[in-house]
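Justification of computing resources. Each target in the renewal requires a structure prediction run like the one illustrated here; the chain below, 134 residues long, is used simply to show the kind of job we budget for.
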Amino acid sequence: MRTEVITVRTGSRPTVVDITREAEAFVTGRGDGLLHVFVPHATAGVAIIETGAGSDDDLLTAIGELLPADDRWRHRHGSAGHGRDHVLPAWIAPYATLPVISGRIALGTWQSICLVDPNGDNPSRQVRLSFLEG
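Resulting structure tokens:
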């Protein structure tokens, strides 16, 4: 198994960051296997979605409606509504596993690998890429 950790700047607002290029670079030339993408944070997730056509903003809107950033949460450290960020991984898992064929991630035409981070308290995140050879 080969592993690499990348740092992703997420800023101070909820965001969806496309990390497909970094993942593709990691698997290039590695043959067949599985790419495992893991975010070792309690308030972020990994989603396989279309980006650039509004879906990333739609996802953030849906998170805001499903998990409002208000004072309803028992988990109360950090910025207002931060407790909802700790619930996010129950809906958007902190990992994804994807097939790699001949050194290329087998994504669909419009699919991208995205880091989903609603937590503006942490301006950067770590993402662990692991390749399991088949």
